[in-house]
Amino acid sequence: MIKEGIKIENIDGQLFEIRTFDPDDSRPASFTHYLHNHKNGISKFYKKDALSYVKSVLEREFPNEDITDKVSEEALQYFLFDFNNSIPFPAPLKPKFRFIDLFAGIGGFRLALQNLKGKCVFTSEWDKYSQQTYKANFGEIPFGDITKSETKNYIPDDFDVLCAGFPCQAFSIAGRRGGFEDTRGTLFFDVAEIIKKKQPKAIFLENVKGLRNHDKGKTLATILNVLREDLNYYVPDPQVLNAKEFGVPQNRERIFIVGFRKDLGINDFQYPESIDNTKTLENILEEVEVSVKYYLSTTYLQTLKNHRARHESKGNGFGYEIIPNDGTANAVVCGGMGRERNLVYDDRLTNFIPVTKISGKVNREGIRKMTPREWARLQGFPDEFKIVVSDAQAYKQFGNSVAVPAIQATAKKIIEKLQGK
């Protein structure tokens, strides 16, 4: 029984309304990870810090009360009831496998693998805005910087699949064998270090298509050598898959690397074939009139036209692009020309009064940027996925994300192999 005078329901929301996302405090992440894993035995990895977090909140809210460990324990258990009911994308009730989500972004891997009845038991993402989006949709705060040993120490044992959309960095391997030690100082080294220690049954890595040719192919060769020789995984040749082949109208090519621990006896793997290449831009556009803020100003539109004309005069193909409704979008990317390469025609605007400070007037040609929700759809995120950050952050997050349907199709093949199908 929680101590009389302490109304725990009064601070229920405050435990989840974590706004600061202090990179040096892993307790909020431990708290949410504990709640997610209290039924599977993994909660022991998170309980100590979860209790510390709850106690700190209670002490802040009830400064005149003696908050004992027993009170903190009872309060922690209180939050387990009906926890999944408030989460837009809860874990499956009867999961068939476990996975961890590294460099998680906003949860594209998680969404895909949960759809396949997978249970996420650890998440890491350092960007505080991505953490906010992740928390809003999965009810979990990712741990921070995975390069820190203290973060790695939270990773539990006995999970099945390691997922990582790790950033590509240059490896300094000139004149060397390109093994495990040669990847130090890169983010792949941290992934390899976790694989070496935890020995998951399978690994699923995603990266930009350019990884194949990075440093004349040496970077990919080093990665494969580490996975195959140093870590003893069966790794078939990586494959580049295009999101437009998996039910979203986006020309997005990414390299996928899959591996299986050799003692499992898995020695063949087929990446998924095209599932659906029929979708066009029409399938993801907003159904109602969108805000005037997404329409280009006359001044900016003229700047884009001049920019493209200069490049065309030099024989280059750079510049803005308007995607027809029956066409396929270019890859959404973070910043730069990401939005200007995916403009659309939309003549439904009825109010041309600007709601933001612009130079010139709102253009009358019906040319606008896609909305963050449209970018979400291009990446295969359902409309129930909450966008809780600014437009600028949302574009960044979806541009950096994985295409969920392509991830899910590949993960399905991985799980089928692990289950002997």
Question: Can you walk me through this structure?
Answer:
This protein is α/β, with parallel strands linked by helices and 421 residues long. The protein has three domains: 8-83, no CATH class; 88-276 and 403-418, Rossmann fold; 287-370, no CATH class. It has helices at 12-16, 27-36, 47-61, 69-78, 108-115, 128-138, 149-152, 187-198, 218-230, 298-313, 372-378, 391-400, 404-418, and strands spanning 97-102, 118-123, 161-164, 202-208, 233-234, 239-242, 250-251, 253-261, 329-330, 344-345, 367-368. α5 links the parallel β1 (97-102) and β2. α3 (47-61) packs across α4 (69-78). The longest helix is centred in the C-terminal third of the chain and has 16 residues, at 298-313. The protein starts with 11 loop residues before the first helix and ends with a helix. Its EC number is 2.1.1.37. It catalyses: a 2'-deoxycytidine in DNA + S-adenosyl-L-methionine = a 5-methyl-2'-deoxycytidine in DNA + S-adenosyl-L-homocysteine + H(+).
Report the CATH superfamily of the largest domain: Vaccinia Virus protein VP39
Cα-atom Rg, whole angstroms? 24 Å
CATH architecture field of the largest domain: 3-Layer(aba) Sandwich
Largest beta sheet, briefly? 7 strands, mixed
Total beta strands: 11
* Whole-number total of structural domains: 3
By DSSP (H or I, 4+ residues per run), the number of helices equals: 13
For the residues shown, what is the average pLDDT? 89
| CATH level 1 name of the largest domain | Alpha Beta
Q: Helix-strand pattern, N to C?
A: HHHHEHEHHEHEHEEEEHEEEHHH
Fraction of helical residues: 25-40%
CATH topology grouping of the largest domain:
Rossmann fold
Overall geometry comes to: globular
- Uncertain regions spanning at least 5 consecutive residues: none
Q: CA-to-CA gap between the ends? A: 49 Å
Share of β-strand residues: 5-15%
Structural class: alpha/beta
